[in-house]
Design brief:
Blueprint lengths: L1 H8 L6 H30 L2 H31 L1
C-alpha cells in the first residue's frame, strides 16, 4: 500500500522514475527489518512473546500509513 500511495503522489513529478525509489526505499527499510526480525524470533524460539516488539512496530507502521493513505486519497486523485 505504501508503494501505491507514493507512486500516486509522485505521478505528476518530472523525474518520477528517480523520485519514487528515493522516497520509497527509506520508508520500506523498517518494514523489511521488522519482518525479518519477527520471523527470526518466531522460527528460532517459537514463541510469540519474543516477536511481539517487532509485531508492534509493523502494526504501528500499518496504522500510520493506512491513515495517511485515507487522508490524502482525495488530494492524490484530484491532482
Amino acid at each position: 500500500m505504501l508503494g501505491t500511495i507514493l507512486a500516486a503522489v509522485t505521478l505528476k513529478a518530472r523525474a518520477r522514475e528517480l523520485l519514487l525509489p528515493l522516497v520509497l526505499f527509506p520508508l520500506m527499510v523498517p518494514v523489511i527489518l521488522a519482518t525479518i526480525r519477527c520471523m527470526e524470533a518466531l522460527l528460532r524460539f517459537g514463541e510469540l512473546g519474543d516477536a511481539l516488539p517487532w509485531l508492534r512496530l509493523l502494526i504501528g507502521f500499518d496504522v500510520i500509513f493506512l491513515t495517511v493513505g485515507i487522508l490524502i486519497f482525495d488530494w492524490v486523485v484530484d491532482v
